[in-house]
Design a protein that fits this description.
By secondary structure, the chain is mainly alpha-helical. The protein is 67% helix and 0% strand. The longest helix is centred in the middle third of the chain and has 59 residues, at 40-98.
């Protein structure tokens, strides 16, 4: 079976032969040697980044809550006005129907 690019296979094998194999560091007893721990400055930087991200998330959440609480009285006022207009229209409809003379209202 011929492939589209048969030379690619040979280039891959040649490249693999030139690559150095990975080194496994083991003790004589057959246990792996642990890599050295990260420096203290790196751990402090990691925790500083985590704290900064959490503080930013809390600030955004607080801003969203503040916005919602600022809009709440406006929404309640709009609801009261809408209810008042609804009741006014019902009242107007009733007064218009009472004054009508229909076939059943004799």
């Amino acid at each position: 079976m011929t492939g589209l690019e048969p030379a690619q296979t040979w280039r891959h094998i040649r490249g693999m032969k030139d690559r150095t194999p990975p080194e496994l560091e083991m003790t004589i007893e057959g246990e792996f040697i642990e890599p050295p721990a990260a420096p203290v400055a790196n751990r402090i930087l990691l925790w500083a980044i985590i704290v900064a991200v959490l503080a930013g998330a809390m600030a955004i959440a607080a801003l969203a809550l503040w916005f919602a609480l600022m809009i709440l009285p406006v929404a309640a006022g709009a609801g009261v006005v809408a209810y008042g207009m609804y009741r006014y229209r019902l009242w107007r409809m009733r007064t218009a129907l009472v004054g009508q003379q229909g076939p059943r209202r004799g």
